[in-house]
Every structure is written in structure tokens, then in C-alpha cells.
Amino acid sequence: MSEKIYSNFRHYLLGYLIFISFLSFIILGSTFNLDTNNSVAEWIINYQGGFGRRGLAGELLLNLSILSKIHLKKIILFFIYFIISVYHIFLFNFLRKVKFNFYLILVVLSPLFVIFPISELEALGRKDILIPLFFIIFCMLYDKSDFVLLIFYLIALYSFLIFTHEVSVFYLPFFYLLIIFKIRKFNVLNILLLIIVSIYFLTILILFIKFNHSEFSIIKMCEILENKFDTKCGLGAYVLDRSLIDNIKELGGIKFIDIIRAVFIFFLGSIGLLILLFTTKKNIYSKNILLKSINFKYIFFFIFLCTLIPFFIAVDWGRWFNLSYTMCALIFIFCLKNKIIILNKESKLISLDFFEKKKIYLGIVLFIICFSWNPKAIYSDDIGSIPIYRSSAKVFKIIYNSIN
After folding, report:
1. pLDDT tens digit sequence for 267-279
2. DSSP state letter for 79
3. Does pTM top 0.70 for this prediction?
4. Which of 134, 183, 113 is nearest to 323 (CA)?
């Protein structure tokens, strides 16, 4: 693969993201009104039956529906369109100035990354997209903010995330890491601010546990939605009264083959990222107190471990693969862009001498790793195949049926 292809990859990336957005819009537009659409059902959750977890975004969208007099599900559909568009635009802007090599292309095109929602439609339009979107926004604010201002941005952004979906708390360390990068020397006030913010987020989680939805509040919310907004509750609403223990019990049927498959999915989907990680070295000119004393690989491994927690409490492993990989890829690229780490170009791991002579092999490797397979939504499901083809065929069928 020539240097010209590497340098032009950003143009291919733009087309890739536009194509994924197009597929997403068509598929969502054809399924948003179905009662079985779990992504829309998530956004419908609100505070009409009383305060509880996951309700903030739904309450805001519900009030927007009242003000605009547009049907609630259509408001949600337009909002999801907007979020997907903004995410892809911001992601392209985030990656635009990256100096790509073959392994960074593997990172971006991984089936665990941006392509996953159209590969596994159960994940398309979910609230999960807000976590990497807000992280990219936080990265954009990083250069323009000092430590204290970044703390306030964290409170503003993450308050919305946690009140919209509590699973976002497991990805909070990625945001914390950016704040810690701002620390040049040990400062008691800075540490105290981080502790106060941590207590604030912990208090919110405790409130969610204390004010968990009851069966009565769920029924009340669903009755209001059906009677006043002509909208039925979906699966997302009816599991709000489940405890953490109830979710964990669903994993009781896990088998050894499921674990082996999960390890394979993570390894193959992350191979480009892993190779780059093991060929990095920290910038010796960094003035950050953390980076001076701790190897970056250890820091990366720690925040990666935090993303594994959802795998032990919920069966939606496909979504956790996507979120875990996406956040790890974004933080790694952020560190490269900001010269927190640098690639060791002399490493034998990143040598492509053999493949450079046989460029067709690079294309085959790229297809096998990135486009021939995808993880499924539930841990017990087998691996999917050729996601781009299947999604495109589905969209073609939708368009053909709508014309005829």
C-alpha cells in the first residue's frame, strides 16, 4: 500500500462515514415506528412516572414533542439522525489530521468501531453513541481549557450522560485521564477537585439505586405515553425495575465457548490497536507528573479494564465490545495527536516490508480483519459475516420496496 493511499485515506474515510450515515438513516427510517425497535424504546424513557434512571433525554424529547406538536417517535428519529450526523462529523474532524499508516487504518476500520451499529442493528440508534460523541467534544475542549475549566466541562457533559444512561459511568476514567494530563505538578487543590467531582457522580449513582423505578411508576409512565402521545413503551422501559443482581443472573448460562469467542473478537478486532500500543513510547519531553512516573501502557491497560465491567453485569456484549474498543481507540489517537506518546518507527512489529512488495496481500488482510465479520449483540450469539454487504442489501431492499 503506497504512501499516496495513506495520505489520501482521510478522503476515503469521509466517504466511508457518509456511506455508514446513509445506511443508518435508511434503516432507522424504516424501523423507528415498530414496537420492537429497542433503540427508540430507550429514548422514550422519561420522568412521567416519577424520577428514575435513564429518563433525562426522553423527558426533554417528550417536551419538545409537546412544543412542536410533532409525534414523539418522529422527534426521536430526527434526534437520532442529528446525533449520528454530529458524531460522524466530529469523528472525521478528530481523525482528519492523523498521519495514517496501515495499522491506524486497521484501527479506524475495525468491525468493533464505527461500522458496528449497522452490522448489528440491535445497536443502531442506541444511547451508547453519546459516550464517544461527548468524549470527542471533551477532547476538542482540552486544548482550550485549563484544569479547572475542564473539570466544569466534565460536570456539565457527564451529568447529562449519567442521567441519560447510567452505563456511561464505566467510561468516566477516559474523561478523567484527559483532566489528569493537564496536571503539570502535584497540587492538593487539583486532587481535591477530582475527589469532589467523584463524590458528585457517586451520589448520582446512589440516588438511582434509591429511587429505582417501581412496577407502578413504569405502568404510569407507559399509560401516559400511550394515552397522551400515542406511543407504546418498549423493552427498555419494562426492565427499569430490574436490579443489578437480576441482570447478572442472566449471565448464569455463559459457557466456555462464549468466553473463547469473546477473547477472539477482542483480539482480532483490536489487532491494529494492540500492535501500535506495543510499539509506542512516551514522549520524554512531557511535563505531566503522571506520564513521567508511569508507563503509558499501564495507564492504557487500567482504563481498558474499567470497560470490562459491563461484560459481568449485562448480556449485550456486542454493545460493550463497541464501546470498549471505541473509547480505547479514541484515547490512543488523542494521545498520538497530542504527542503524549510517539510511535517507535524502528520497531519490527510495524514493519510491512513483505506486504509493501505484495500490496494485494494488504488488501486481503484489511478485508479479513475489518469487513468479513462482526460481533453479534448477545454474548451467546455466533459471529456475523460480511456486514457491509448485508447492510447494503437490506437498504437496497427497503428502497426497492418503497419505490414499488
Report:
1. 999 999 999 998 8
2. H
3. yes
4. 113
